[in-house]
Design a protein that fits this description.
Layout lengths: L1 H11 L15 H5 L1 H4 L9 H8 L7 H11 L10 H30 L18 E8 L5 E11 L6 E11 L10 E6 L7 E10 L3
Parallel strand pairs: 3-5
Antiparallel strand pairs: 1-2, 1-4, 2-3, 4-5
Length: 207
């Protein structure tokens, strides 16, 4: 029995693999060509990568990015239309966009709050003459001076200070005012085509 078990174990044991015998030397020819046995040199890097590293990358703006995104989109081709159909579609799109703009602006106005009131008009008594104060810009004419009057008012819609200047011709019977003087004028009857103001007093003389 022991001999039979020993024979079965030997039959089941795998046979050892045959080791390849070292090849015989090829002789002086193998020694003369060492390049054949040496591994090939590594391939050089492509020149495009080096060029990309050396050149600075340009920043792409939002317009170019949107254009690139549109170019990547490949949707189904729209059916062919006549010029009249295209014009009708454009008109419809424009009306829709105009309505959307109107709604957006109305919402912005509502969110902004109440509209500004600006500078209220001055209260006037009936029959009272207007009085203005300004600076003399010219006194060359005889008995006539040119006065520049500046006003500053707050715009009713934009709440911004709006400055305006206007020139008046005033009657100076004694030629008292000179250029640069601050004077006060009062409304009077027309004395010429452009002169319907009269000098009341010199508030401050020019230095």
């Amino acid at each position: 029995m022991a001999d039979e078990e020993k024979n079965e174990q030997e039959a089941q044991a795998p046979e050892p693999e045959a080791t390849p015998e070292p090849e015989a030397d090829a002789g002086p020819e193998a020694e003369a060509t060492p390049e054949a046995a040496a591994p090939p040199p590594p391939a050089p890097a492509p020149p495009t990568a080096a060029r990309a590293d050396s050149e600075p990358t340009q920043e792409v703006g939002p317009k170019e990015r949107r254009r690139a995104a549109r170019s990547k989109f490949s949707g189904e081709a729209a059916p062919s239309r006549t010029p009249e159909e295209r014009a009708t579609q454009r008109t419809t799109d424009r009306k829709a966009k105009a309505a959307a703009r109107s709604r957006r602006r109305a919402a912005e106005r509502a969110a902004k709050g109440e509209p500004g009131i600006g500078t209220p008009p001055a209260e006037r008594e009936p029959g009272a003459k207007k009085v203005r104060q300004g600076i003399v810009t010219s006194s060359k004419a005889d008995k006539t001076i040119t006065v520049q009057i500046e006003s500053a008012r707050r715009h009713p819609a934009y709440e911004k200070i709006v400055r305006r200047s206007k020139s008046f011709h005033a009657h100076d019977p004694n030629n008292e005012a000179g250029e640069g003087d601050t004077v006060r004028l009062v409304e009077t009857r027309p004395m010429s085509k452009t002169k319907h103001w009269r000098l009341v007093e010199i508030v401050e003389k020019a230095r």
